Amino acid sequence: MNPFKYGCVVCGENFCRRGEAERQLRRFAESGQNVVVQGPRRMGKSSLVKKAISDMHGMNLVYIDLYYIGSLSDLCKRVMAGIAGMNSKMSFIRKVMSLVSHLRPTLSFSTTDGSPIISVDARAADDPNSLQTVMELLEKIASGGKTCIVFDEFQDILRIPDADRVMAEMRGAIQFQPDIPYFFLGSVRHDMMAIFSSPKSPFFKSAAAFEVDTIPRKDFVAFIGRRFAKGKRKIADETASRLIDVADSVSGDVQELCAALWETTNDGATITEGDVPLALEHIFARERKGFEKSIARLTPTQIAVLKGLAATDEAKIYSSQFLDSIRIASTGTVKKAVKRLAADELVYEWNHTWRFVDPFFREWVNRKI
Ligand SMILES: Nc1ncnc2c1ncn2[C@@H]1O[C@H](COP(=O)(O)OP(=O)(O)OP(=O)(O)O)[C@@H](O)[C@H]1O
Ligand SMILES: [Mg+2]
User: Fold this and answer.
1) Which residue from 6, 309, 342, 359 has the fewest beta carbons nearer than 10 Å?
2) Averaged in consecutive runs of 10 residues, what is the pLDDT profile of the chain (369 residues)?
C-alpha cells in the first residue's frame, strides 16, 4: 500500500501535524469566532480544519461542502448532508427530520457504509423560505452544546442565481448566533475576496482571516521520512527537502510526488535526487494530455512568457532580467500574456511573485517545451 495520499482530505497518520495552525483554529472555535480560511489549492485547508476541530474535546463538527452547488435546493441538501454526517444516531436523525418537515424530508441509507442520508424535496427546498428553515436548524443543533459549522468551498455560493439575497439572509441569521463559530473555507481567492472584502457584500468584514500556509518544512521532512520508512525505505532530510521544493511546497503536490517515488522505487531502497526524474515521468504520463491541451491554446508569445516563468524562481515579471530572459522588450506584452495565463488558471500571483498552479506542469514545461 502506497503510504502517500493525495486528492482527498487526509487524517490520522496521513496528516502531518501543523501545531500552531491547529491551535489557532481551535482558539477561534473555542471563542465562537467566525473565520475565513483561505489558501492556494491543495495546500491542506479542508484537512487542517477537519483535524483541528475533530480533535477538540466536546466540540461537534458540522461539515458542509458547497462544492459546485447551483441552486438553493442544492444548498439545503448539502446542509442536511452535513448535519447527518455529524451524528448518525437514529433518534437525532428523526428529530432533525421533524424540524424540517415542510421540506418533506425522506430517509435512506448509504449503500457503501449504511450511514443515514436525509434527502429533501427539491421543489420545497427551492422555495425562498427554505433557507430560513435550514439556518434555524443549524442554530438549534449548535446552540445546545459546542458545535463548529464549517462551509467548505464557500465561494461556490456565488453560483446560486440569486446569490446576493441568499448571502444576505445567511449573514442575517449568523449575526444572531454570536456563540456559534462559523468557518468559511475557499480556494478561489478573487471570489472569496468579493464575498468577505467587498463593502457591497453582506459578509463584508464579518469574519477573522486565517491563511493556510505551507506545512513547516522541518515537520514535513520528518513526516516524509516516516512514511517512506513504512517500506523500510530511507530518505535523507536534504532529499526530502528537495522534494518539497520541486512541488513548490504545496502539501498535496508533495504527497503526489512522494507517491510517484514510492511507485518507482523498491522496499529497502534509499531514495535520492536521482530518482526524481523517473517519478516525474510517472506523473507526466498521467497528466500529459491535459498539459498538451493547455499549451495548444497559447500563442508563441504566451508560451515564451510561460517558459520564462517556469525557468525562474520567484519571477518578478517586469524586471529587466526577466524580460531579457524571454527576449521580449515590452512590459505591456508580458502583462497581457500573464493575464491570459492567469485566466487559464495556469499561473497565479502569490506574495508578489508568479507561481504555477500545478508545479508538475512547470516541471513539464521546463523539461519538454
Ligand atoms: N497536514 C497535512 N499533511 C500531509 N499532507 C497533507 C496535509 N494537508 C493536506 N495534505 C495533502 O494535500 C492534499 C489536499 O488536502 P486538502 O484537500 O485538505 O487541501 P485543500 O486546500 O482543501 O484543497 P482544495 O483547494 O482542493 O480544496 C491531501 O490529499 C494531502 O495529500
Ligand atoms: Mg478543500
Assistant:
1) 342
2) 97 96 97 95 97 96 97 95 93 94 93 93 90 95 90 97 95 94 93 94 95 96 98 98 96 98 97 97 96 96 95 81 88 93 91 89 95
Q: CATH for 17-211?
A: 3.40.50.300
From atom 9 of ligand 1, which residue's Cα is the shortest distance away? 44
Q: Are 39 and 213 in contact (CB under 8 A)?
A: yes
Contact residues for 1 (Cβ-Cβ < 8 A; gap 6+): none
> Does ligand 1 have an atom closer than 6 angstroms to the CB of 70?
no
Residue closest by Cα to atom 13 of ligand 1: 252
User: How high is the pLDDT of residue 313?
Assistant: 78
> Is the CB of 5 within 6 Å of ligand 1?
yes
User: Does the beta carbon of 181 lie inside 6 Å of ligand 1?
Assistant: no
Q: Report the atom number in ligand 1 closest to the C-alpha of 8.
A: 29
As a whole number of Å, the CA-based R_g of the chain is: 23
Whether 38 lines ligand 1, by a CB cut-off of 6 Å, is: no
Contact present, 45 and 217 (Cβ < 8 Å): no
Give the residue range(s) of CATH 3.40.50.300 domains in the chain: 17-211
Q: Which of 8, 9, 10, 66 is the pocket-test mutation for ligand 1 (most atoms within 8 Å of CB)?
A: 10
Is 348:342 a contact under the CB 8 Å cutoff?
yes
Q: Is the CB of 217 under 6 A from ligand 1?
A: no
The CATH number of 215-296, from 1.10.8, 3.40.1350, 1.10.10, 3.40.1800, is 1.10.8
